[in-house]
Amino acid sequence: MAQEPVVRIQNVTKRIGSKVLIDRLTLDIPPGQVFGFLGPNGAGKTTTIRMMVGLMSITKGDILIQGASVKSDFERAISAVGAIVENPEMYKFLTGYQNLLHYARMSPGITKERIMEAVERVGMQHRIHDKVKTYSLGMRQRLGVAQAILHRPKLLILDEPTNGLDPQGIRELRDYLRVLAKEEGATVFVSSHLLSEMELMCDTVAVIQHGRLIDVKTLGKENDAADRPQETAFEVDAPERALRLVKEGRLEGNHLIVTADRSATAEINTKLVLAGISVYGIRVLTRSLEDQFLEMTGGGQID
Ligand SMILES: Nc1ncnc2c1ncn2[C@@H]1O[C@H](COP(=O)(O)OP(=O)(O)OP(=O)(O)O)[C@@H](O)[C@H]1O
């Protein structure tokens, strides 16, 4: 049985004046995943996140976090959330550890052991006693994440966490977000306008444009991809005859390219072979999420 979603965004609309920023957005976020929220600049990612954490009101619809309504039960909803939406304030002349200790004093029940556990989750144990002013951007971000998870939230929200990070920093971010999702049993919700990074980081990606949900894709699951129609190339000895026989697709050299799902692929192969055409190879031409995203959003342009 599918587990209860950690977040349920239910038919949410955000209007400011006559402008519709978010248009009837419905989205379930399952537990224990790194879940991506992908869209070009201005698509409405930050607006959605701001509504999730109570920084902006919801015009219509509702958002449930661990079953609690952001609109009518905000205290309970937000208690399940750790978020970095704007840059977290850190005292630069204190060490990372002192910053966390300071923060922990303001929230009851966080022990020193828990602080060190959070520090380990983000791989900062070797630098945590250095002053924040000596940290790189990636380290400051890790410290921000450690702070955001101190109270063991079920949902960690990061708005554009890869911004400004170099490739190495992005790889490290990906690695520790995966550990977090697994070890803390938390769902990590990350927004980005960069597809390639989302592909590396996330289990699932929801694509948004013009305030509307366009698609939700599970990444890295072969079965999922295998059941959908995909461009498939049949390498044959008589391409023209193959095209006449199959009556669809196009030719590229000695390849017949057809959009087909698994069963159609098998049927086409049988047809070709029974007609005496030799099939030397069948290859699925998988497209990256990037290609699909560009297709969906018309090249990633805003308008
Ligand atoms: N307070 C506001 N009043 C009016 N329009 C706004 C307001 N805040 C955001 N917008 C507009 O709403 C749209 C969505 O903005 P939002 O910041 O949510 O996009 P985004 O997907 O997070 O993009 P980015 O990556 O550029 O931040 C944009 O067209 C933006 O100009």
Automatic annotation (TrEMBL):
The keyword Transferase does not apply. The keyword Hydrolase does not apply. It comes from the Bacteria. Gene3D superfamilies: P-loop containing nucleotide triphosphate hydrolases (3.40.50.300). Residues 7-235 form the ABC transporter domain. Keywords: ATP-binding, Nucleotide-binding, Transport. One of its GO terms (molecular function) is ATP hydrolysis activity. Pfam families: ABC_tran. Belongs to the ABC transporter superfamily. This is ABC transporter ATP-binding protein. It comes from Paenibacillus faecis. The lineage of its organism: Bacteria, Bacillati, Bacillota, Bacilli, Bacillales.
